[in-house]
Amino acid sequence: MRDVAVIGIGMTDFGECWNDSLRDLFVKAALQAMDESGADRLDSIYVGSMSPGLFCGQEHIGSLLSDYLGQAPVPAARVESACASGGLALRCGFFEVASGASDFVLCGGVEKMTDVSGAQATYALGTASDQDYEAFHGATFPGLYALIATAHMHKYGTKREDLAQVAVKNHENGLLNPHAQYRMKITVEQVINSVKVADPLNILDCSPITDGAAAVLLCPLEMTKKLSKKPIVKIAASAMATDTMALHQRKDITWLGSTAKAAESAYKKAGVKPGDIDFAEVHDCFTIAEICVLESLGVVEKGKGGEASRSGLTARDGKFPVNPSGGLKSKGHPVGATGIAQIYEIVTQLRGEAGKRQLKKANRGLAQNMGGSGGSAVVHILEVL
Amino acid sequence: MITPPVVRRNTPQRYRLEAGKCKKCGKVFFPPRLVCDKCQCREFEPYTLPSEGAVVTHTVIRTPPRGFSDEAPYCMGIVQLTDGTRLLCQIADCEPERLSVGLKVHLEFRRVQEAGESGVLAYGYKAVPER
Description:
The complex is a heterodimer.
Chain A: E1 4-11, H1 22-37, E2 44-48, H2 52-56, H3 61-68, E3 76-79, H4 85-98, E4 105-111, H5 118-126, H6 141-156, H7 160-174, H8 188-193, E5 196-198, E6 201-202, E7 212-220, H9 221-227, E8 233-242, H10 257-270, E9 279-281, H11 287-296, H12 305-310, H13 327-331, H14 335-351, E10 364-371, E11 376-384
Parallel strand pairs in A: 2-3, 2-4, 9-10
Antiparallel strand pairs in A: 1-7, 1-8, 4-7, 5-6, 8-11, 10-11
Chain B: H1 4-16, E1 18-22, E2 28-29, E3 44-48, E4 52-61, E5 74-81, E6 86-91, E7 104-113, E8 122-129
Antiparallel strand pairs in B: 1-2, 1-3, 4-5, 4-7, 5-6, 7-8
């Protein structure tokens, strides 16, 4: 296996991009990644997208996007693992370069969610749950995470304010990210008094519906020095794991087994412990998700996730900054693009190019991208050399 | 999706709580599966779930998905039945204030969704708090 580096990154602004189609969004992000990489060709393309069929009535997007990027006949595949589709696209590209089969692989993610009504978007997102045994009964995604939140509050005494604090912290970070959808400060009171969605979660506990795309270009580590003058960022580990599809099948509803397993495997591959990671971009699709993810990653003990935001541990100037980009909550969550946008932020931080939101210490970062209510999770660890 | 083939195929579970029990290790699967995730055994015997249980966790859905607009707000929960099997369903005839972890419930046969495009009524189980 060859070592793999990220030599180019790109992303669109996240938001309601009414003038951009799915193909426009993807091509804009991909061109940025290709332009800054110095590569003169592509060997292969992977695109993470959760449901272009339901959001845009368009399938077969591997071909569409390769064509509109001006890269046909390069092989191109769309991969899907619900909200972890982007992370999975990176993982596919990583192995293709590591194996020696290809040198230059573009890994992108895209979702165009605002061409349909909110109700239709909710339906499309709901297809990432168990259709016959969750969605059938009227469960929504906020509803499933609300069930996790109630269980966490009951088991560990996590407070309503602890959930709100995650959103407050991520919005503070997003304020400094020019690509973020919701660049505004919010308060704990605003979160707690916002419109109820699924008790105990309110609208300000939920990541938004977003259009956007992100892309990264991978190549073998030994080729990077000739191509790019930017600091070299290596993918130290790529790992994925699965768990029961339905939330109710899990012994411990507050434990994200797929994230824990993928993280354990990633730490082992990179030869590091959670304490060796400087910062993380994690899948805060709902405030409770970030709390449970921190526990499952081993950053904090079981049951202590609620304290992490309140104590300042995960703040931008804390000991373990989480979601310096603003996370899904403030930056936006164009489902398939999210996993790649996390990598965009990590590479930006590792290169020292994050401007006002630049972290003091950023030598090794972790990205955790999660599908559904945790039925799948992808974890990557990146290091700057 | 509520189409005639789906409704027909799921009838044993939704109408009669039919599950499968692994012949080797005894693990109960609802819905029935073809492979046991505990011991990889592929043989199962028919098994019917008990209808009594208690709420493990709960929520109130206030922003409903398609097919549930007339119902919202409605209570939902994960219910652990007396044999240990867990399932997710609505908690009917229950004021949100009454929801609590440990609340004793039993399953009843109810209509679950509004009739969709195919016009087929979707019936299934809902949990109802014990009086």
